Amino acid sequence: xxxxxxxESFTEYIQHHLTFWNAPLTHAGGxxxxxxxxxxxxxxxxxxxxxxxxxxxxxxxxxxxxxxxAFVELALEFVDGQVKDAWHGSRKFLGPMALTxxxxxxxxSLMDVLPVDGIPTAAEATGAKYxxxxxxxxxxxxxxxxxxxxxxxxxxxxRAKGVRHYFRDVVSAPFTAKNVFMKVLLAPFxxxxxxxxxxxxxxxxxxxxxxxxxxxxLLFMLVAGLMTHFLSLWYPLGIxxxxxxxxxxxxxxxxxxxxFMYLSxxxxxxxxxxx
Length: 275
Hints:
Layout: H1 3-17, E1 22-24, E2 33-35, H2 36-58, H3 67-86, H4 94-110, H5 118-125, H6 139-161, H7 163-172, H8 180-229, H9 231-272
Antiparallel strand pairs: 1-2
């Protein structure tokens, strides 16, 4: 194989693995479409997480726990402790929400450390030309989750303060009712800061997770591509590089899942606090 053709083949390999299984919502195509692979993987992984925790919850005993029950209890205590640090009120909703976010983001991102060609090759055998198995490497998923957190933030702010007092805090903070002049003077600035906050929170939350997982996914593709197209020179180094990067990627995945979970809880908790 010539260098030129090898380079073209390598480029095509990367482009193939970066392409989603895309289904337009209309017969004529258009801007709206659905990533079938993202939907399948996110739903399957969410179902696995749900069944896994439900199974151990149903079989929980008060005696010496097994390894599975011990892990679930440790995870619950860890997440509940983080929620307790961020919010001192009722954790009836925030606790399960934080647990769901952390483990759902974790298991979706964990697909990144599997062999690059494994799941796509199996999907192609069933007729799918393209298949990307890492849902959090799709910016649509991370934005959907961050926008959901934004909706919950506003909802809990309304519920804790009422619509009138919620927007009063937006306009008048940090001044009291006696400082009418300062409230009126700084109202435009407060409103501007509120709008910026509502825009930057979901964007930063979504792009932080997407950027880190996408970068790791792309690096795995590059290593796998080198191993596939230049076997004699790169294969041994590729195996070593793949193994080493998998360890670092596991750490990155855990950190990103924790950050997404903790910031989500923090945003919702801050929206309920009174000045």
